[in-house]
Design a protein that fits this description.
By secondary structure, the chain is an alpha+beta fold. It has a two-stranded antiparallel sheet with strand order 1-2. A two-stranded antiparallel sheet has the order 3-4. Strand 13 and strand 14 form a beta hairpin.
Length: 198
């Protein structure tokens, strides 16, 4: 494994991935009037940072997984998601023998074998295997990025992308590898780790 460079807080010894994250983290120690999240108790140096953090607890994703930070609009989707934590992969691809937790994941995997991408952008012709891929892509054409990070002013077109980005500032690493225990700020980092290391 390659070691990631970390920046340590001299006050509480917490390790953070980025220098800017350490700077923002230290503001929490310096500011006596912390803005506390009433949902999880985390403190923030600015009210705007607390507002941004609240996206993690957003009301339009009320069903939270108790094993990871994932949140969902419907309880049925949460129930299906929880199957991914069991380690049981019941659905096998007849072509390559790769196994999946969910039947839907196998279905999308098979589409990839045949190069089928049923969700097509009417503006540019780019196509996707999943409907949400097309939905996110459509924001590129509109240019609308309505969700802004209060830490660095970076803007996002999708609320969940902003919520994950916030972890890079707070130093939180909620995505943990169930095999070796390494933790990551964003889901794609964990996926890349599993794809290359395990």
């Amino acid at each position: 494994h390659t070691r990631e460079r970390t920046f340590e807080c001299s006050i509480c010894k917490k390790k953070l991935l980025h220098h800017r994250s350490l700077r923002d983290h230290k503001l929490m120690h310096a500011n006596a009037r912390l803005h506390k999240c009433t949902t999880c108790g985390k403190g923030f140096p600015r009210s705007s940072s607390l507002r941004t953090h609240m996206i993690v607890h957003t009301a339009d994703l009320p069903f939270a997984c108790d094993l990871c930070p994932a949140r969902f609009k419907r309880s049925s989707v949460l129930k299906t998601h929880k199957l991914t934590h069991t380690g049981v992969r019941r659905f096998e691809c007849d072509i390559c023998k790769h196994r999946f937790h969910l039947k839907g994941a196998l279905k999308h995997h098979i589409l990839a074998h045949y190069g089928i991408r049923p969700y097509k952008c009417e503006d540019c012709g780019k196509s996707y295997r999943r409907s949400w891929g097309l939905k996110v892509h459509r924001y590129r054409h509109t240019g609308i990025k309505q969700f802004e990070c209060d830490f660095c002013k970076l803007r996002f077109s999708v609320k969940t992308k902003l919520a994950n980005h916030i972890y890079t500032h707070t130093g939180e690493k909620p995505y943990k590898c169930d095999i070796c225990g390494r933790q990551y700020c964003e889901r794609y980092q964990l996926k890349a780790h599993k794809d290359t290391r395990h």
